[in-house]
Amino acid sequence: MGILPGLACFALLPAAQAVSPAPDGCYSNFTTAEGCDALKFLDTGVGNTAVGWDALLSTDTASFNTAVGGGALLSNKADSNTAVGAAALLLNTTGTQNVAVGTDAMVFNLSAADNTAVGAFALFNNDSSGHGVANFNNAVGRGALQANIDGTQNDAFGDLALNVNTASNNTAMGDDALFNNTTGDGNTAVGREAGDTIIDGSNNVCIGQFAGAGIVDASNSIAIGVQATGPFANMPNTCWIGSIDGRPTSDAGSTVAVMIDANNVLSTPSSSRRYKHDIKPMDKASEVVLALKPVTFKYNHDMKGTPCFGLIAEDVAMVDPDLVVRSKTGVETVRYEQINAMLLNEFLKEHKKVEQQQSTISELKSTVAQQQTGIEVLTAQLKEQAAQIQKVSAQLEVNKPAAKVVVNKP
Questions:
Q1: How many domains does the chain have?
Q2: What is the dihedral of CA 202, 203, 209, 211, to 10 degrees?
Q3: Nearest of 142, 137, 185, 136 to residue 160 by alpha carbon
Q4: Which residue in 22, 162, 189, 322 has the fewest CB atoms around it within 10 Å?
Q5: Mean pLDDT per 10-residue run, the chain (410 residues)?
Q6: d(CA 34, CA 32)
Q7: 139 and 199: one domain?
Q8: In a domain? residue 237
Q9: Residue 66 pairs with which residues in a beta bridge?
Q10: In which domain, by residue range, is 182 found?
Q11: Do residues 145 and 166 both lie within one domain?
């Protein structure tokens, strides 16, 4: 694969001049050379080690380089590079502090610096443009970052990790992690084949084996322990977390809602007094909820068209701006948890009214009952009085003297 272009570069180099063999050992300036034309043109360079055919061939005044392998650091003119493997850092000229271990590792690097490649064909094309900007890359694994040319500050650990990448600031740990990423920047993938479908999406995070599979050009998405599936598989700003749906809680008594703020910080609501100040009764402040207009609706992205019930954030903002959450693009959602508390206050106020009304009704009933009792007593008394009167009347009638007849004499 990559070894053929790498070794083909040997044919393009000028033929080595015949020189008398260098003596074994005893080189000055901490220098070691072993192999045909190894360190052949060394001049004032210090602390160089070359083992292999044409290893460090072109190095003259550069220092502290180590080349082990045929053609390793053959074109080098810079300091502090290490190449172990046939054709490793073959074309490097002015790049410094590079480490290449493996056949054809960083073979086309010309002037880029501070890169590390461990594995056959790792960072194979790095800096092949000669722009010297492909710095601070780390590739560990066969073919890791193999296609990278001008990308900087990438980290790839695993066979074929970030294999076709040409972008910057990506981190891939695991075989084939971010394998297809080309121009996407700032992606992080940890796990075998994690994020391997991403091509030009940026700032995505995929953790777990096959995590994020389905993301292609979306950005700012997160997949933990699960593939990116469903209608949002390639939508930006989406989060998937595996092993949550359908799982019963281990301790139902301790469960609390999880919330997120505008800074993407997850937290749970705190109700303890020690977290609060300016505490006072809600009183009439909750009456604004009576002006809200509940609606039914369906979400645009819901392909099933499930009926939903709730409020429209813009309508709520007109009633009370403090009951909505705003984003950079405008009104975003309703603070339903606050509305729930306000509804509770209104319910308690109505409940208190009902209790007062019931108390008044009870008092009225008691009064009526007392009056009814009084009427009944009075009625009984009247009946008794009537009976007594009737009795007295009867007695009087019995004791009434007989009537006398008066005869008028002429």
A1: 2
A2: -80
A3: 142
A4: 322
A5: 47 40 65 94 95 96 97 98 98 98 98 98 97 98 97 98 98 98 98 97 97 96 92 89 80 82 81 91 91 94 90 94 90 91 91 88 86 85 83 76 63
A6: 7
A7: no
A8: yes
A9: 49, 82
A10: 159-242
A11: no
